[in-house]
Design brief:
- The strands form two sheets. Strands 7, 8, 9, 10, 11, 14, 15, 16 and 17 form a nine-stranded mixed beta sheet that branches. Strands 1, 2, 3, 4, 5, 6, 12 and 13 form an eight-stranded mixed beta sheet that branches.
- This protein folds into two domains: about 100 residues, SRCR-like domain (Mac-2 Binding Protein); about 110 residues, SRCR-like domain (Mac-2 Binding Protein), CATH 3.10.250.
- The chain is about 10% helix and about 30% strand.
- It is a single-pass membrane protein.
- Keywords: Disulfide bond, Glycoprotein, Membrane, Repeat, Signal, Transmembrane, Transmembrane helix.
Length: about 240
């Protein structure tokens, strides 16, 4: 089915990221994130005036609950508007398996990228770049499940939070609240509140970090060599596997 009726979309959050809000004949609702993917997000962001976009599952909080107007969009990524895509139907959706809103991160040049520490080790703060702006991540609920997803998405077999990270503020901060189950393929598949710039890490300061491992051992991680399963030819002249404490 396609949306031929009059509708408007906007974002709940920042001007470039948030839950996709649909106003249908004056009534606001959201899209269930079931089967929501990057192709759907690309079309939504294009409709909002951006060149490209990526999906994420927007965490549905109690104070922001609104009806699900649609779900299971099947955009190819070439459509101009969400209304041109096939989807599950139009009207209040009674069942939403994920119970999350379909979210987007819109951009014109660069989307979301990340690395651990300074890119030369397998342990450190999570650094992310959105639209070319790098910064550390403030997440008051950051935990081992989040770190595990981050590490596995970079080619490691497991990971956990890094205990040697302080709670001090940094000059460049991205604020978020991620809720990973631990089996997601990437951080963007985890339920998330937002990606937004922050000046301070409050009220419960916690900087996101990870200590990545491969088969129970720490593995060096560099920008040139990002797949732990490959055999390196050199790593600054030395390649060390450090047993975890």
């Amino acid at each position: 089915m396609r949306l031929f009726a009059e509708y408007q979309i906007s974002l709940l959050g920042e001007s470039y990221t948030g839950a996709v809000t649909v106003k249908y004949y004056g009534l606001e609702g959201h899209i269930c994130s079931d089967e929501w993917d990057d192709a759907d997000a690309q079309v939504a962001c294009r409709e909002l005036g951006f060149a490209n976009g990526e999906m994420f599952n927007r965490l549905r909080t109690e104070e922001q609950q609104k009806p699900f107007w649609s779900s299971k969009f099947k955009c190819t990524g070439r459509e101009r508007r969400l209304g041109d895509c096939n989807h599950a139907g139009w009207g209040q959706i009674k069942q939403c398996k994920s119970q999350h809103y379909a979210g987007v991160l819109c951009y014109d040049e660069q989307g979301l990228s990340f690395e651990v520490g300074d890119g030369s080790s397998a342990a450190g703060l999570l650094n992310i770049s959105i639209n070319g702006k790098w910064g550390v991540v403030c997440d008051p609920k950051w935990n081992d499940a989040n770190a595990r997803v981050l590490c596995r998405s970079m080619g490691y077999t497991d990971g956990r939070t890094w205990d040697d990270v302080g709670t001090q503020n940094a000059s460049a901060l991205w604020g978020t609240v991620l809720e990973c189950k631990g089996d997601e393929a990437s951080l963007k598949n985890c339920a998330n509140i937002f990606w937004k710039t922050s000046e301070v890490c409050l009220p419960k300061p916690r900087l996101a970090s990870a200590q990545c491992t491969h088969d129970g051992k720490l593995v060096p991680y560099t920008r040139e060599y990002k797949t732990a399963s490959q055999e390196p030819t050199t790593f600054q002249g030395v390649w060390k596997f450090l047993e975890m404490a």
